[in-house]
Each structure stands twice: as structure tokens, then as C-alpha cells.
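Sample intake sheet
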Amino acid sequence: MTDKQKLEQKLWNIADTLRGKMGADEFRDYILGFIFYKYLSEKMLSYATTWTEPEGYKYSELNENTKEGQALIDAVKEMAIENLGYFLLPGELFSSILLRGQGNGTTKFILDDLNQVLRHIEQSTLGTDSEEDFENLFEDLDLDSSKLGKTPDDRNDLVVKIMEHLDEVDFQLENTDNDVLGDAYEYLIGQFASGAGKKAGEFYTPQEVSSVLAKLVTTGKERLKSVYDPTCGSGSLLLRVAKEVKEVGEFYGQESNPTTYNLCRMNMIMHDVHYSRFNIKNEDTLERPQHIDERFDAVVANPPFSANWKSDDLKMNDERFSDYGRLAPKSKADFAFVQHMIHQLNDEGTMACVLPHGVLFRGGAEGTIREYLIRESNVLDAVIGLPANIFYGTSIPTCVLVLKKQRTHAEHVLFIDASGDDHFEKVKTQNVLRPKNIDKIVDTYRGFVQKSPLERGFRGVLEDKFSYIANREEIAENDYNLNIPRYVDTFEEEEPVDLEAVAKELKALDKDMKETDATIAEYCKELGIEAPF
């Protein structure tokens, strides 16, 4: 097992401490919250040590009641706030609180102290540049909840037990070459998603799908100034994009669910993304967009499928929607999210989003919007069909739309059908894209982008039963219906039937039946009963 896999297994085993007491989406908040607290403590201790050791002191042993100790603590605080974005006193470190819980003090009861420490982490940022990034970050870690135990002492014992288990885990913060802890944290989020059922869609995109989107939007690029996700959930998509390039300058996201918003900010920090490099907002993207004046190099999203939204006449004055002539239906906000993302995409950027298959062919307002995207703004670059049952909590088939404002092939659109049985693996109840399936999708798209439009035979079948290049005239002839089977022929021709052989077989069967009937008649005669025919 790799270091990452060992850490993942250890952390998941610790989660067993809470399993059975509450639902997956609830104990997720506790386990991830405690892991995050330990991470902040170890990060703080590591940073402070670089300043206190040259002075001959261990930060964890500094006494704030002495003049010298307080002077060192004040100096460390000033630098920590600027560089880490937060501050912890020596007595507020994870190790210090755990020692008290184990009896190194006047009482083993630490819940009140722990609540105060978590509040103080947030308060330490007040009035600083990192204030918004740490505000209410621990609000879902309710240490007074009866779900942790019937009595305060029961709850205290459980919290100490969890902290003891975590204390035995090496977070490997010194390993700067590999983001071991960040990846393990991401693994845990995925594990919780698999057990959260329908609620998983609120905060998590399967890593395989995230990988496809990330590879698509980074095609031909080594660095990105910015990446944006308007429905960022736990931030997994944003972080996946960073794995595909050498550098991402800034991460932008918006998330309407407060709990998931907190999880996203934690996830960013756990992946060592400095607070100054991420800008995550807690608001409804369609109603109150928080980054409306920004334009991004890459936009990725897995919006809630066919969600309700306020599709009222006032929206027609909104520059995100006004040019299209129609608004997305009130019960299907899919295209509203697409329109919003196109508005936020810069002229050289690429956008990829996951949507339900219905956006490809539904009529009415969606048909009008689809036509505008292709005929007027000409931003649709590719349509990719994914297997059904690939997302947690829903079995519906989905697709990926890739859009660009400056396209290599202005008159052509790539269609890929990756939904067939050969293009995924069934794992328990989920369908999963294998690495080779992901590579085939991405390589096909990149081949299309790099292909010269002057090459002979550019339009037409790229790979039999998998990909097809259509021109806009052909799409117009199909009334801007993007249903993939209209372009990618996946029809499997049945083997020809040998009618002469079938006729001979039927004659032989008829002969056998007559012989059998005669045999039965003989038996019936011997028994003195009437034959059944």
C-alpha cells in the first residue's frame, strides 16, 4: 500500500467510531471537522517552531503568563495571521487539548475548552484578509449534540476517543512533494458521498467525472490564471483541475448550501491552497452571483440536475440571459447554469459541465436556447454522452457539454458516445469510468481540437460507434436536436438468419412432436384413458 492509501484506510477506520450513531452525511461533518482541527494545529505548530526554536523554546511549551513567553507568542501570532491566515495559542493546539482529555489537568472534560478553541480560530482572523475564509468554518461541529452521546460525559468520552485515534495518525505535512493528506481528505469525502445516497449530489462529483472535466478544460494549457465552479460543492472539481496543470493562480467558486460551503473551504486549506488564492462564496449562483464581473480561464461544473429556479420576467433584463430570447423553464434550471457559465468564461477559456441528457433534445425554451448557442453565439465545441448510473443518488444518463468562445473548428461540433457497456465498469451498484475510458474520451476530444479543418474527410465518422464530427448545417437540419444517436450510429446489426436451416429445423421438430404424440397415445391406450389430443 502507498502512504496515501495507508492514511486513507486509517482515517476511514477512525470514522467507524461514529458509524451507526448517525447518518453518513452527519458523521462526515464531525470526522472531517476533527481532522481539519488537527491539521490546523500541526500546521500552526510547524510554522511557530521555525521562529521559537532558534530562541531555544518549543512553541507548545511556551507560557503566555510570562513576559518572555507572551512576547514570543505575540510575534508568532502576527506572522501566522499574515502567512497562515489564522492563529492558535500553545494551549489551544490539538495535542494540548488531548492531554487534558486524557487526565493531564484538573478535569478530563474538554468539550467547553474545545468549543472555545474552535471559536477562537475563527476570531483570530477578525479584521484580517482571511476573515471571510475562516468565518463560521466550524459551525457544523456541534459538540453538544445528543447524537454524540446521551450525557455530556458520554459525549466527552467519545470526542477524546476520536482525538486519541487521530493523534496516532501521521499527517505527513513535511511531505511537500505529494499532497498525501489532501488526497486522503478528498478520499474520505468520496467515501461519505457513496453512503449519503441522493444527498451526495449536493457536495460531490465522482473523481472519474471530475477527471474528465478537468482534462477537457486544460487541453493545450500548462497554467491557468483562474478556474471557476458556480456550484462548487466540496471543491473536488476545482482541485482536480489543479492536478492537470503546473499552476492555477486562483480558485473561484460559489455554493448555496452552508454546510457544503464550509466543507469546500476546509478542502481548499487541507490541499494547502493559501487563503489568498481561493475565493469561495455562500450564495445562490443564479439569484445572487458573487463573481459576476470576473472572467475565467476555465469553468467546470456539475450543477444540480433539473433544479427549480426563479424564471421570472425580470431575468430577461439580466445580461446573462437577455440575448437568448427565452428563459430556461422554472422546473429545469440546467440551461440557466450554462448561460451563467458562458457569461463568466473569458475569450480564450474552455468550459465543461455535466448535465442530464434531456438538455440535448427537449423542446420549448430549451430548444430556443440550444439553437442560439449553436447558430448565433457558436460556442458549442463537443457533446459527450456518459454512462447511466455514474453519479451517486441518481441513475439517469448524463452528458458533458464543452463550450468555447474561440473555437478551433468554428463550423464543426464533436459528438462522443461513451455510454456503451464497453466504456465503463460496474462496481457494486455504480457504473465507473476506468482510466482507459477517461483517456479515450479525452484523447478523442484533443485529437479533434488539434485536427486541421482542411484535412480531407474532416466531417463524418471519427471512430465507428464512438465519435462523429458534425457541421453546423447538419445540426440545423436536425432542428438543433443534439441527441447523440442522431450523429453517432451505435446500431448493432444482427447476424443474418439462415432461413433454409430454420425450415429444416422446424420440419425435424414437427417430426419429433408427431413421434412423441404417438408414443403418448400408446401409453394412454394401455392405461385405458383418452389421449389429451
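Comment: The mean pLDDT is 89. The two ends are 71 Å apart (CA to CA).
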